[in-house]
Design brief:
Length: about 200
């Protein structure tokens, strides 16, 4: 994979993983918890998300396309729909997830942090499609870089959130991010519909 393809894939995964969306969740669970425990949760959730995404990058095409006969364009449309709903929730209500406050910390590392906030339907779909285009090793390298950036944001989230709240920036930033996430969902859905249309036209 050349530099431009690596950069394009990296930006795609960064946009889908959306590190900014972790600011609110991590800041909520870190209010009354020692930082060391929060750091362990961030690392554990990243590791679990990496396993999920790499598993789908490795065997997702066989599972969905060859075994279940679900085409990648169908996953793109579904993943786009999920992104649209997630982004609309943030745009309307000012948060990506409200349930995190009531969950035990042991559960938060898996749900919602690992999945669906990191390894969500859209990111899983991208892992499968990118692997089918660039191969597993290329996808794994791009995905690993994006996950490391996301982990860095999560580890600094308690400090970033305090600074943003001081200047009343966090709320508007979440809503702007929600709009961007919705746009990404529309793009993914339209791409899936376009791929479906091409397939239909090529089918005798």
């Amino acid at each position: 994979m050349d530099y431009q393809r690596f950069l394009d894939g990296f930006l795609l995964f960064i946009a889908l993983i959306n590190p900014i969306s972790k600011l609110l969740v991590v800041s909520i669970i870190s209010q009354e918890q020692p930082y060391k425990r929060i750091a362990n949760i961030c690392i554990a959730s990243t590791a679990m998300a990496a396993l999920i995404l790499l598993a789908f990058a490795s065997a997702g095409r066989f599972l969905f396309v060859d075994f279940l006969h679900i085409h990648l364009y169908s996953l793109q449309v579904v993943g786009g729909g999920v992104l649209i709903m997630t982004g609309f929730n943030a745009l309307e209500k000012g948060h990506f997830l409200a349930e995190a406050e009531s969950k035990r910390l042991s559960e938060v590392s898996l749900v919602p942090l690992a999945s669906p906030l990191i390894a969500g339907p859209a990111t899983i779909t991208a892992s499968i499609s990118q692997s089918s285009i660039y191969g597993f090793s290329g996808t794994a390298s791009v995905l690993g870089a994006a996950l490391l950036v996301n982990l860095a944001v999560m580890l600094t989230a308690p400090f970033i959130a305090k600074a943003l709240e001081r200047f009343s920036i966090l709320g508007p930033l979440i809503r702007i991010t929600g709009m961007i996430v919705m746009a990404l969902g529309v793009e993914m859905g339209l791409q899936g519909i376009g791929d479906w249309w091409v397939t239909v036209r090529q089918t005798p």
